[in-house]
Specification:
It is a single chain. By secondary structure, the chain is an alpha/beta fold. It folds into two domains: 8-222, Rossmann fold (3-Layer(aba) Sandwich), CATH 3.40.50; 246-319, no CATH class. It has helices spanning 54-61, 84-93, 111-121, 127-140, 157-169, 187-204, 215-221, 239-244, 249-256, 263-268, 301-304, and strands at residues 8-18, 27-38, 43-47, 69-74, 77-78, 94-97, 175-179, 207-212, 224-229, 232-238, 310-311, 318-319. Strand 11 (310-311) and strand 12 form a beta hairpin. Helix 3 (111-121) packs across helix 4 (127-140). It is globular. The relative contact order is 0.13. Bound molecules: adenosine-5'-triphosphate and magnesium ion (MG).
Length: 345
């Protein structure tokens, strides 16, 4: 393993679900040809509206779902169709933490056993050593040793998510896949869990793919960000490039909805409100999947041609939009008299 080798390389990842005839039939195009790379020690964000395929990507990576097509490499090794036996060793390297700390922890198992389970399953520690490592891990996530005898239902949401993190990290994985780990929590405890993820990452050095709706969390936490829409990646760039100069009209509209800390800037900012919801992934729109909601789409180009993810300026900032200039200039979605664009003054 070389120092520059990515921890995770996802290429052309595709996941389709067949809908049973009793429910109308058809195929859900949940994820279509997604490429994602996570470097060593990087925290990479994956953002997009509900139904854009974020959880499906995360579940394919940890192999809770079998991909329909594409390749997933972990430290250069192809794990796309790894066998049940292969999965065992994989679990030591990649772990997932879920959105809902209520349903993802077994209510009948005390916290100490929940955190010990991966150690026992992989035969990594025995006897007293298990207790010692569980105690250390609980301490790392900010829980006291007496928590190990408590049951998940006795704990607050924030503490349960700390237990979820302890279980996911006790084997020292090189990759943590976190699927909206704070969105089910009270706003008041979200920041403490986000700070904890950041501290743990600095301390333990794992790489992380962090799935989120909430752009301010991603801005705080992530080094690089992928924006997804209806199963496609529409933009990817470093946090600074993406937040300071978004290129794709979809990213621009997502960012325009984020509250700014400066009230003056907030008053001046123009908000782009997209019409309608994300279309059905059973019959996704042709061409650019965003064209049915895009305030600046040009026809027939955007309806007919699928835009490629293009790096316009040689800085690894890439966008999939026909209307981004060859110099990386973004189309202006907040100007003009388009009725779909609502100006907030
Ligand atoms: N097992 C399944 N069978 C059929 N369709 C599915 C299945 N799992 C997900 N889907 C569909 O695939 C699409 C993507 O779902 P996914 O859960 O990955 O989205 P998401 O971006 O994680 O959304 P959210 O932000 O709401 O969690 C959705 O239309 C969803 O209904
Ligand atoms: Mg999800």
């Amino acid at each position: 393993m070389s120092a520059s080798e990515p921890v995770l390389e996802v290429s052309g990842l595709t996941k389709h679900f067949d809908v049973p005839r009793s429910r109308g039939g058809g195929v859900v195009h949940a994820v279509d040809g997604v490429d994602i790379t996570v470097g060593q020690g990087e925290i990479v964000g994956l953002v997009g509206e509900s139904g854009s395929g974020k959880s499906t990507v995360a579940r394919c990576i940890v192999r809770l779902l079998e991909p329909t097509a594409g390749r997933i490499r972990l430290h250069g090794k192809d794990i796309s169709h790894v066998s049940r036996r292969g999965m065992r060793s994989l679990r030591r390297q990649v772990h997932m933490v879920f959105q809902d700390p209520y349903s993802s922890l077994d209510p009948r198992t005390p916290v100490g056993d929940i955190v010990a389970e991966p150690l026992r399953m992989h035969g990594i520690a025995r006897g007293r050593d298990v207790g010692r490592r569980v105690g250390e891990m609980l301490e790392r996530v900010g829980l006291s040793a007496d928590m190990r005898r408590r049951y998940p239902h006795e704990l607050s949401g924030g503490r349960r998510q700390r237990v979820g993190l302890a279980r996911s990290l006790v084997l020292g994985p090189s990759l943590l896949v976190a699927d909206e780990p704070v969105s089910a929590l009270d706003v008041s405890v979200r920041a403490s869990i986000i700070n904890l993820v950041l501290d743990l990452q600095r301390d333990m050095g794992f790489s992380c793919l962090f799935v989120a709706h909430d752009l301010s969390t991603v801005e705080f936490l992530c080094n690089r960000v992928y924006v997804t829409y209806l199963g496609h990646i529409v933009e990817v760039g470093s946090r600074d490039r993406l937040f300071d100069a978004p290129r794709h009209p979809y990213t621009q509209s997502l960012l325009s909805a984020v509250a700014l800390p400066d009230p003056r800037l907030q008053r001046e900012r123009r908000r782009v409100v997209l019409p309608g919801d994300v279309p059905s992934p059973i019959e996704p729109p042709s061409g650019c999947r965003f064209h049915t909601r895009c305030p600046v789409a040009e026809f027939p180009l955007c309806r007919e041609q699928v835009p490629e993810l293009v790096e316009h300026t040689g800085d690894r900032h890439r966008a999939a939009c026909h209307l981004v200039g060859t110099d990386g200039r973004a189309p202006d979605v907040s100007g003009g008299a388009d009725p779909l664009v609502h100006h907030q003054t």
